[in-house]
Write a structure and sequence with these properties.
- By secondary structure, the protein is mostly beta strands.
- It has 2 helices and 6 strands, in the order ββββαββα.
- It has a single domain, classed as OB fold (Dihydrolipoamide Acetyltransferase, E2P) (Beta Barrel).
- The chain is globular and about 45 Å long.
- The relative contact order is 0.21.
Length: 154
């Protein structure tokens, strides 16, 4: 049996780092991944994929990635279920990251987070990193942050 997933996309919000009762780090984040085709209006749509990473990798993701960061994830799909507070069964599907690559320099992410603050009220163009159907749109040269320890995914 094969259960392998490779994704490249942008984080839709800052990663959420937590620790289990045993002190193990776990981070959850969502990647927006562009579809390979355009819709009838010529726009690219994206899928929003929930991901989880554990231990040191979780801490690195929390330290280095932010909303809008370009990341590559190599992992596997995992499904599960639980009962919510109302007693209803909730089914989950997520990608468990075996490896996460930081695909752009940290200073690019900082520039992107400052860019919306620099936009004026007269600017009617929407920020492409905050619109659900448009994540990406330009290529970046790979330069890993310190201690990322990873190779790029192309």
């Amino acid at each position: 049996m094969i259960n392998r997933v490779v994704l490249v996309g942008r984080l839709t919000k800052d990663p959420e780092l937590k620790y289990t009762q045993a002190g193990i780090a776990v981070v959850r984040f969502t990647l927006a991944v562009n579809r390979a085709f355009s819709n009838n209006q010529g726009e690219r749509e994206a899928d929003f994929i929930n991901c989880v990473a554990w231990r040191k990798q979780a801490e690195n993701i929390s330290n280095y990635l932010r909303k809008g960061s370009l990341a590559g994830v190599d992992g596997r799909i995992q499904t599960g279920s639980f009962e919510d507070q109302d007693g209803k069964r909730v089914y989950t599907t997520e990608v468990v990251a075996d490896s996460t690559q930081f695909l752009e320099p940290r200073n690019n992410a900082q520039q992107r987070s400052q860019q919306p603050q620099q936009q004026t009220q007269s600017n009617t163009q929407t920020n492409k990193y905050n619109s659900p159907g448009n994540y990406g749109g330009h290529s970046q040269q790979y330069a890993p942050p310190e201690n990322s320890g990873g190779l790029p995914i192309y």
